[in-house]
Amino acid sequence: MEKNAPLIAITNLHKTFGENTVLNGVDINVNKGEYVVILGRSGSGKSVTIKCLVGLEKADKGVIKVFDTDITNLNENDLNAIRVRIGFMFQNGALYDSMSIRQNLTFTLKHHNKNISNEDIETKITEALDNVGLLEAIDKMPSELSGGMRKRIGMARALIIQPEIILYDEPTSGLDTITAREISELMVSIQKKYKTTSLIITHDMACAKLTGNRILILNNGVIHAEGTYAELEKSKDSWVKSFFI
Amino acid sequence: MIAGLKNIFTDTGNITVFTARFFKEVFRPPFQINEFLRQSYAVGYKSLPLVTITGFIMGLVLTIQSRPTMAKFGAESWLPSMVSLSLIREIAPVITALICAGKIASGIGAELGSMKVTEQIDAMEVSAINPYKYLVVTRILATTLMIPILVIYADLVGIFGGYVGYNVHGSMGLYRYFTGVFEHLEFLDVVPATIKTFFFGFFIGLIGCYKGFNASNGTASVGVAANSAVVTASLSIFIIDMLAVQITDLFF
Q1: Predicted ipTM?
Q2: Domain ranges of chain A
Q3: Which residues of chain B have pLDDT under 50?
Q4: A95–B120: do the CB atoms touch at under 8 Å?
Q5: Which CATH architecture has domain A32-45+77-211+225-242?
Q6: Residues in A touching B131 (Cβ below 8 Å)
Q7: Contact B95, B197 (CB under 8 A)
Q8: Region A209-218: what's the mean pLDDT?
Q9: Do the Cβ atoms of A55 and B122 come within 8 Å?
Q10: What is the distance between the alpha carbons of residues B51 and B182, in angstroms, rounded to a whole number?
Q11: Exposed/middle/buried for B33, CB within 10 Å: 0-12, 13-18, 19+?
């Protein structure tokens, strides 16, 4: 990998579902250590963009380079080699509901490292849960947790593999203002502690302001505007302004 | 009409690809032994009470219903043979498979459908865990191996039910009854009937997994997946049974 190459480089990404064109030439670069937020209305293709990044959706056209490797035509094994370096936090946590929190975390860890000892598993689980402030939930089932707690555990599961990139899909959606702020602050503290590169999908302006050092606004399948929160706030573009009202 | 036909062909194509993937993945390591054992326990052990009750009732009712006709022809002593042959060759495999289609195929369809809707399958995939291998292969293997065992168990319970049924109105010792059972039972009565149960089990698992794995997003699709899994699995059991009877008839 070239020294100054971006960790994520998306060029001319197109994606269509039936008659509906969702992405129509998206270009995104995310450098190492950056926290980039993608803003956009519901259905604008934000989630589709990050799903294409991990191979959950296949791009119709375009190049997606992650760690300087084009992932669009990788076989499953090569794609998995990339995936183990990326943490993905799903909108509703996507915790395995037949497993306890401990089993959720152990399951992910054991599949990443077959030879990991039980002591190491315990240490990593404790650290991950401590990071998200939910150590007491270790033996609970996902159904016993609130929406905010599920998101925190989802974050712990993404973190436990010590990823270089974390992708957040609507990390604060469906939460009250206070819990949403707590989650945003937690994301910032994790970014600082582990020096991860983050790509955050949201339509929550408070979350974008707190967590992103660069914001991209997606509209009509392309990146419509780009800048820091302060720059975009002063924009004269009516579409951009509508996000700050 | 044309759209309906198109859907049938699309579904057939997709299920063929899904089946081909099973045979590709099943021999490729890593093997999910623990999950396979967990699924075998869920499919086999947890179905025992249901299979015991239905197996016993099958044998009991068949004996009580057949007895007057057999008595009319003076063939009452043939009742143990007749009941055991009917149970082993046809009734126990089909009824047990249908019960399992209701219990297991719907359970698998609903479980995987719900995992799909709540992005748990996606979560496995992005964690570099092959969800097909972990969720689908283990379940299909479990149903393929457990359904034949459940059917053999249902055969035995059903034959015992026949003994109880015989003794409701008549009197026959256990030893004499079982001598009657095994007197006319041949190797060729048992083997084809057992072979077809592997296919029943395979299709119950396959259809449950296919319907759940391909559930569209939205909670309503979980119910649709479960319901559709039962209907398709039940129908496939009758079709396999018909083919199995034709093939057995051709060769034996």
Answers
A1: 0.91
A2: 32-45+77-211+225-242
A3: none
A4: yes
A5: 3-Layer(aba) Sandwich (3.40)
A6: none
A7: no
A8: 93
A9: no
A10: 22
A11: exposed
